[in-house]
Every structure is written in C-alpha cells, then in structure tokens.
Hints:
Radius of gyration: 50 Å
Number of strands: 0
Number of helices: 19
Order of helices and strands: HHHHHHHHHHHHHHHHHHH
Shape: rod-shaped
Strand content: under 5%
Largest sheet: none
Amino acid sequence: MPEEITTADKVGNVSPSRYAEIVAELRKLVETASRIQFTIGDYALEVEPMRESGGQERSDGLFTVKDSLFRLAEDIGVSYKSLSDNRWVTSRWPKDRRVTGVSFTVHRIFAGIADEDERFAVILAPPEGKTRWTPDEANRRAGRQVVKPVTPQEKVSAIHTLAKDEAVAATVTGDLLRRPTVVAQVKQEDKVRAVAELTRDEDVAATVTGDLLRRPAVVAQVKQAERVRAVEELTRDENVAAEVTTGLLRRPDVAFKAMSDDTARHQVNHAQVERGRQAREHFEDTHPAAETVRNIDRSVEFLDLVTACHAFVAAAGRAVPGMRDRQLEDDEKVLVHKNVARVRATLDWIETAVDTGKVDVDGELARLLQGE
C-alpha cells in the first residue's frame, strides 16, 4: 500500500522523494553550467588575457580589450557583461583551484577575496554543519549582502539597501517612529540628531519648541545660558517682551535684582518720565478739560515768575545793607560782578518773554546762566 503524503510533508507541490530527485538532476545541470561558464571565461582570457595582476585593467589597451570582448560576445550570442564577468572570475580561479560541486556563483562571490591563499582555502571549508557552500553562506563569509537575512545585522543591512531611495527611507522612518518601543531603543545622540534634522523646517521647529517649552521637566534641564538666549529670542517682538517684562517685575525678587543693574534702573526711570509725558500729551490732546488746565498752568507760571522776582528783590534787600563798611577782596568782587551780569541777563530775558512771548535762550545767555 503506497505511503500517504500529507501537505506538511511536501516541498512545494512535490513529495520529499521527488524533491530529492529534482535536486540531484539540477545539481548535475548546475555543474554543467559552471563548467560552461568557466570554459567561456577560459576562451575569453585566451582572446584577451588580463592586462595586470589582480584582475585590474587600467592601461590604455582597455579600449582594445573591450572591443575584442564585445565582438566575441556578439559572435557567440551572450551579453558583453556576462562574458566580461566570466573572464574575470575565471582569471581568479586557475583550473587546478576550481572546486567540483561548487557552483560558478559561489566561485564568483569568493573571487572578490584579494588574498589568493585565503580565497583558495575558504572555498574548501564550507560552514560548520554544511556539506557545501550556498550563495547566501558565501556572501555572508565575504561580508556581502545576503538574499535571505538571518542575523539582526543582516536585516539592518537589507533595510539600508532597500531604503537607498529617499522616498522609501522617509516612509520607513515615519513608520518606525510611530512605534514607541522602537524609539525607546534609539541612542540619545541619534535622537538628538534626528530631531535636529526633522526640525530644519522653521514651522516644524516652532511647533516642536512650543510643545517642549510646555514641559517643565524639559525646561529644568536646559542650561542657564541657553535659557537666557531662548528668552532673548522669544522676546524680540516688542509686545511679547513688554508682557513678559511686566510679569517678571511683579515678582519682588526679580524686580530687586533687575533694579540692581544701573542701566536697567535708568531705563525704568526714563520710561516712567516718558510715560508721564505721553500721558500729559494725550490728556492735552483729548480731554475736554485740557484747555482749563492749560489756563491754570499759565496762571501758575505767572505767579511763579512774580514770586521769583519778589524773592530776588527781597533777598537783595536783606543782603545789600549788610555790605555797609565792608571791603570785598578782588576775587570776591569778580564773583559778585559775574553773578550781577547773570542776573541782568536774566532780567532782560524775562522782559523779552513778557513783551513778545518768546522764551528761546541764545548761546550767550545760555553760557551766562550756566556760569560760564
């Protein structure tokens, strides 16, 4: 009674025994194909031997070599690339070093090993537990990309190869960054570099920065110098700066430290004076009672002027009689005459202002008033 074969026992669509028969037949064909490829390479080498040791051809004769090999490829009906590849691989494997039962593909992979002794030894020593070299095992031994990656590093290399296209790489990166467990395993310096790259766009950087500044734990780790620089950048807008400054000056400790700076204190005082001036101008321009106040101001100024004159006369009336029988020194006389001149100029200025309404001070009067 024939043995029943289940689906699990099959290889593809055939039984294990039939699969073994197919493998045996195909190995014979692969050996035949390998001999054919080596034979093609031998003939190609006969037509055009390698020009330099190591399989490198850099001489001017390279163009002649290509012409000859291209003609040969055309005449036998194969591609120039295939013929050139067979010629190079064959040059790396002398006839007595070619291994029966090992495919031409494996010979091609190991042909890239520069050291001859290593190359010839490797092909004779398949991986432990294996009876022959497979293309993937050969690529793995030669440090090349395998078709079916097994180890994490091979899988990483495969991903890098597949993601050489920028669009593919961008899509893969976006998908990976949506997996928290993956992001958690990324090194800190790589995370920093990734954030720097992802925030090159100004709008993206602004959004990310805003989000980060809402996290106190993040802000707490920023160095003081960096915080100061950040605040300076964030307060370049006058309205933002005014709002932030107002809030800070409401904090007693901050206000005290700020006022310890001479420049800051001067600016605050100047701002207060300027604020008062602007408020007065606004009042005079807009308030209905502004004209009445101006009239009062003028009355007060008139009274101030009369009072100043009266005070001067009264003071002189008390001081001059005290000079009876007293002789002043020359330098004292000079000082008194100088001040009398200032008084006389001031009186002339007052009369001019009263008569004409002009209160401008010319250069000479200014110097006298300043005691120069």
